[in-house]
Amino acid sequence: MTGAVVYWLLEARAEQRYSLGDASQTDKVVLRDILRFGVSYWFIVALCITFYSGIFPFQTFAVKFFMDAHGVSRWFVGVLGAGFDSVVNERANTWGWPKGRMRYNLAIARELPVFKPIPYVIEVDGVRHSTQAMLVAVGNGPSYGGGMMVCPDASLDDGLFDIMILNQISTLEFLRVFPKVFSGRHVGHPAVQILRGREVRLEASGIISYADGERFAPLPMSAQVVPGALNVLVPGPAVA
Q: pTM of this prediction?
């Protein structure tokens, strides 16, 4: 539900920012749709007051805005994955059992022996990179997938993507590198490449990206940073 609230608020802000529609009417639509999820009216009122008025402490996050090959736009906040991780998600989502993390682990075991490096074209701020890679992760924040620090130096408020590319390695080497992602130490591996930029385009055949834990969009796709698109409440200064 939190993701839905954030998404609809971003859509409202986007329509105001880019003059895509009447802001007052947009807010009514946002409120109506969120109420369908059973959120109380007064909670939404309080949320809108804090979001728009600036009377409470905020931290401003950059948020990622993407447009697919058909011109359809969506938002994500954390990390977008497009490679082995998304292939595993596609496999896991076809199974009804087991539940939870074990289903993902079994999907890894199923896909890893047959996985082939993916031919990518990755364009960052106009510079094109062609490679055979195991996966590409586009990070606003540092982690996804239950604590995997895939882009350990990514910051939510710096206005930049961190793009982690795991270039072609053997299955055995992949098994050696993978556990290091939980601490972020995988970035020291010679097959790992980190790029940074404000705009990115990913091209690959047959790959579905996942973002913020959800099935997102097929490649090719383009994304850009929108600094200051999301304000969040943060703890105030500590009182001595």
A: 0.72
